Amino acid sequence: MSYPYDPNQPPNYGQGGYGQPYGAYVGGPPPGPEPDNNLVWAILTTVLCCLPLGIVAIVKSTSVSKLWAAGDFAGAQKAADDAKKWAMWGAIAGVVGSILIVVAYVLFFVVLFGTAATTSTY
């Protein structure tokens, strides 16, 4: 009969799961430094460009550190990449929207003053 532990060995006090010390990553050490969470870009996108896409970027960027601390390195990298993607799309949407607003104002004033200049008041 096999025991889950050897009765002749002392117990592993202070050990986490799988015989690892508490706080150690079960899957091994992290593959490198924590990825950039792009929080600054997410906040700037939210404030200056596009609110809905910026909020999504903020949510994604704040989850990077939590996933990294939990040992989900691939999930943390994906969240960092998603935060960057949403911030970029928000910035692009903000710039395109601003250009469209300027074009609309120019066309409005050209039509308004163009017709006023051609009509005679005599």
UniProtKB/TrEMBL annotation:
GO terms for cellular component: membrane. It is found in: Membrane. Pfam families: CD225 (PF04505). It comes from the Bacteria. The keyword Transmembrane helix applies. Keywords: Membrane, Transmembrane, Transmembrane helix. The chain crosses the membrane at residues 39-59, 86-113. InterPro entries: CD225/Dispanin, CD225/Dispanin_fam. Its main location: membrane. This is CD225/dispanin family protein.
